[in-house]
Amino acid sequence: MNSEKGVPQQLPLGVSLRDDATFDNFYLSESDPNCQVVALLQAFASGENPEPVIYLWGDAGSGVSHLLQSACQSAEASGRSFQYLPLTDLLAMDPAVILDGLEQLELVCIDDLHLLEGHPQWQTALFHLYNRVKDSGRQLLLGARKSPRGLAIDLADLQSRLQWALVFQLQALSDGDKLAALRRRSRLRGFDLPEDVAQYILHRAPRDTRALFLCLEQLDRASLMAQRKITIPFVKQVLKI
């Protein structure tokens, strides 16, 4: 979390941003329906777009977490105060403590919002934070795997607040786009992934882009250690697929 004068430090939560989670690293094809969403998020993260609350949702691996972390990276580059909170790591903690004072930050990003289902204390705490953020003129970016209407939220007031947000659904990449994204990511890592190897990985590894990129990272590390090119036999050996 970046902090500014007069903003109290939050608890050290052990939450860190992935170095590769940037807007530049988010794959977009020329006709990608996500282009407008990403452009709006870039303006939002830098403070150029004054929208108070944005709700971003999509299936696992669609890039929601990547874009929330990208927004934080962009906020930091712009000198804005921020906090990234993945609920998957925080649900066992006291929400009143975790969310206390966050409305003093310029940007708060809360990920994995679908995990609020069945957690009434977290729902109440988020409802109050939502109101405090809006009242203070700050910004809130929310990420989930379900739309606001699709969430099984017990607190009706929170559900209505979430539905008032500016809502966007991320569209999943096609297989052709995933293939292109794999090869582009490999070039960013400093090596060229042959198309036949990329096809092999795409059709045998988990299908979501985050899992595919993790496979690529694993292959890159193994290739450097073994001083070997990444071929299909090497992929079979390292990934066991």
Automatic annotation (TrEMBL):
Residues 175-239 form the Hda lid domain. Gene3D superfamilies: 1.10.8.60, P-loop containing nucleotide triphosphate hydrolases. Residues 18-167 form the Chromosomal replication initiator protein DnaA ATPAse domain. PANTHER family: CHROMOSOMAL REPLICATION INITIATOR PROTEIN DNAA, DNAA REGULATORY INACTIVATOR HDA. NCBIfam families: DnaA_homol_Hda. This is DnaA regulatory inactivator Hda.
